[in-house]
Amino acid sequence: MFVGRTDVAVVVIERGKTIWTAAVPLGSDPQITGPAHIASTLGSMLDRVPRYGWRAPRVDIALDQPWARIKLVKGVPSVGRKLELLSMLRLNTARFVASSRPVIITGANEIAPGEVQIGVADLRVVEAITHEIANRNLRVGRFVPAASFESVRLSSAAAPGGSDDREILLRQSIAARVTLAPESSQLGLLPKDNPAIVMPDASRGRIVLAGTALAATVLIYFGGQLHSERASLIRDRAYVRGIAALSDSGMQEKAELGSLNHDLANAARFSRHRVSMTALLGAITQALPAEAVITTIRVDTANVDIVTLSPRTAAVVGALSDVASVTAPTIIGPVSRETVGPAELERATIRMRLAPDYGRAKIGFKVERDDDQ
User: Fold this and answer.
1) Is 152 within 8 Å of 218 (Cβ atoms)?
2) Among the listed ranges 66-75, 157-166, 193-202, 287-296, which one has the minimum average pLDDT value?
3) What are the residue ranges spanned by the domains of the chain?
């Protein structure tokens, strides 16, 4: 926006491109052209401004003479930071700027040690325009002296066409540059320094709040999904561990059953092959000749060894061949002769193999085969 002595020009810029322009004369009577008249004219123009987005447009204002000017101030104390320099100048406005009207220092630019270029604007005009923009629910931007765009003014003067066309081009160019040129902020009055803004611009705060809420919602959603996936993963792992424990328990029980099965088979096999010692001794005793005696008998799981005294060892071996519980009686070791009283006897060691008695097994037992092994 450009506010001059005799007219007001408005330029709407969207993404660096001018999409709408308008200009309204203010009049040449200084008694009529004042802050209230400027504000009412500006308000009627702002009602016609098109809005292309959901966000409220920002209005930057270039003030031309006599509403704003640039002044060179000398003898300014050296201050390190620009913010401190600007604060010192504003606190001493009456010392550095002589004016019959209330003014405000919009900005400062140090050009040499002790020399500062400052922008000065009519405070009444700034307040009137600020209130009018705020009443239209628009965002108040910067107030910049139009004299800071002297290069635009010179290029417009050299443009072809009549003086009126050049003036319109000048106002539109300055109105566009006040929004696009970042260097104008050095002499521009920023919204945070505008004393006429009662409530700060909350558009950015609302956007930040909405963005924060959206980010928090997204984080909560994905955090919930992550927690749900993690809980599901923990449950699945616990279920797999339970199945593995059951499988290990089943394998252990299977191994124990196999060992028990093997032991029972060995017990049954031993039961079928075991010979009754009493029956065996009785059968051997009955089979021996009447003049033969047994001095020693030793029985293990496979063999029966007996030591006999008899007149003839060969007769004893032949008699033992008829015993059903043993087989293959054989003389082991030497046969010695001993005299017992008037009789002369032979001492011999005879070994026989045990013959299993399958009829003694009371319960038939079959070894189960493990097909998995």
Assistant:
1) no
2) 157-166
3) 2-199, 202-273, 277-355
Quick count: other Cβ atoms within 10 Å of Cβ 166?
16
Number of Cβ atoms within 10 Å of the Cβ of 277? 11
Question: 140, 139, 149, 180: which is closest to 65 by C-alpha?
Answer: 149
For 171-220, how does the pLDDT look when each residue is reduced to its tens digit (9 = 90+)? 667 777 776 665 556 788 888 888 888 765 556 667 788 888 999 999 99
Token code pair at residue 3: 């506010």
d(CA 71, CA 351): 140
pLDDT digits (tens, 9 = 90+) for 214-250: 999 999 999 889 988 889 899 989 888 888 888 888 8
Topology annotation, domain 2-199? Nucleotidyltransferase; domain 5 (3.30.420)
Q: If residue 152 lies in a helix (H) or strand (E), which one and from where to where?
A: helix 150-157
The pair of three-digit structure tokens given for residue 141, joined into one six-digit string: 């931007």
Instruction: Provide the CB-side half-sphere exposure for 87 (13 A, CA).
Output: 7
C-alpha span between 144 and 68 (Å, rounded):
8
Residue 143 near residue 106 (C-beta atoms within 8 A):
yes
**Which CATH code is given to the segment(s) 277-355?**
3.30.1360
CA pseudo-torsion sign 108, 111, 115, 119: negative
Q: Residue 250 in 3-state DSSP?
A: helix
CA dihedral 249, 252, 254, 255 (to 10 degrees): 180
The full DSSP string for 79-98 is: -SSHHHHHHHHHHTHHHH--
Of 101, 45, 111, the residue nearest 69 (C-alpha): 101
